[in-house]
Design brief:
two-stranded parallel ribbon
């Protein structure tokens, strides 16, 4: 009998050794830049929620949606948005085992949606393309220098892409001469299905602000049902290109109607509702994190000064110090 159990144990160990390893999910946070350098105090909360990736976002700025001049890495910007700051953030996070997606993105003055950026003449289109290439290739060089795992070539720039698709295809070719890691693009939730260059990238990146419920306080089941109308379409798109889906951003505000138009950040939306944020967050994690074709995602957003973020009056996106943080920690611990 003892010999039988010994042989059975060997069989089980052999079977486990032959079984394919479960792929690691990208359990990410969108790590907001600040005026400061970062240290272990700022990184401990990231580690404590079992995150294994951080998105670092050096913003550039334009005056309005018809202005072709992109400004970045200026002395008046916050340290974390400078090239020097990006290196310091990445090296500090890497030292704690956190991998990086470098995600340069544009901020339009007064918060105008970047998807509306559209030039009025051929001359200004060419100026925008040159300015954007300078910005992205500069940070692609930083990405290669510090060996980041993923580089995101743009965020929610649908009009720019719709009107200048050949420019973008050529830009990706130029990026690959500089940076040798994985590439993605952060397409808005209603843009990804017409983005023309997924074949050239490694991940289909989606900022996943899909509407899932019209209710003031949706239940977990409401949000699960709301995802049914989107999940099959996203999966089919993944199969079409044979590329994994990456939620380059996902998350919900802690407000009433959090699942109705999750992309909205209007200041007049200020009725705090932690239950709505918690249920919507859990439904998203339950719907996608167990799927093989899904790579993972980056919760929007995570501030370095965790002890001063969130609280009972907090109505913005961050899950920090809210019930949604416990949900995030639980799910990230499983993958």
């Amino acid at each position: 009998m003892r010999k039988f159990f010994g042989l059975f144990a060997i069989f089980l160990m052999s079977a486990c050794a032959m079984a394919p390893a479960k792929p690691e999910k990208i359990n990410g946070v969108s790590f907001v830049s600040s005026r400061d350098t970062i240290n272990a105090t700022h990184i401990d909360p990231v580690v404590n929620i079992h995150a294994n990736y951080a998105s670092i976002m050096p913003f550039a700025f334009i005056r309005d949606i018809i202005n072709p001049e992109i400004h970045y890495n200026r002395n008046n910007q916050w340290f974390g948005e400078s090239k020097r700051g990006v290196r310091q953030y990445i090296e500090s996070l890497n030292a704690r085992g956190i991998k990086i997606m470098l995600k340069p993105q544009i901020w339009v003055a007064r918060g105008t949606f970047t998807g509306l950026i559209k030039m009025e003449t051929e001359e200004t289109w060419l100026q925008l393309e040159q300015s954007y290439s300078n910005y992205i290739l500069d940070f692609a060089a930083v990405a290669e220098e510090v060996q980041v795992d993923i580089f995101c070539i743009g965020t929610e720039l649908e009009s720019f892409i719709d009107h200048r698709p050949e420019y973008w295809k050529q830009l990706i070719t130029e990026i690959k001469k500089v940076y040798k890691g994985k590439l993605t693009y952060a397409a808005n939730w209603n843009e990804y299905d017409r983005t023309p260059f997924w074949e050239q990238l490694d991940y289909i990146g989606i900022d996943a602000y899909f509407p899932v419920s019209d209710l003031q306080t949706p239940t977990l089941e409401d949000c699960r049902l709301g995802w049914l109308q989107h999940k099959d379409t996203i999966h089919a798109f993944s199969k079409k290109y044979n590329k994994p889906i990456l939620f380059t951003e996902y998350g919900y505000r802690s407000v009433d109607f959090a699942g109705k138009q999750p992309w909205r950040s209007d200041r007049d939306m200020n009725q705090v509702n932690f239950e709505a944020q918690k249920n919507a967050t859990q439904a998203l994690l339950e719907t996608f994190w167990g799927e093989e074709w899904f790579a993972g995602g980056f919760v929007w957003k995570w501030f370095h000064n965790a002890e001063r973020t969130g609280g009972e009056d907090a109505s913005q996106f961050s899950p920090q110090n809210k019930p949604a943080e416990a949900i995030l920690r639980d799910w990230y611990s499983k993958y």
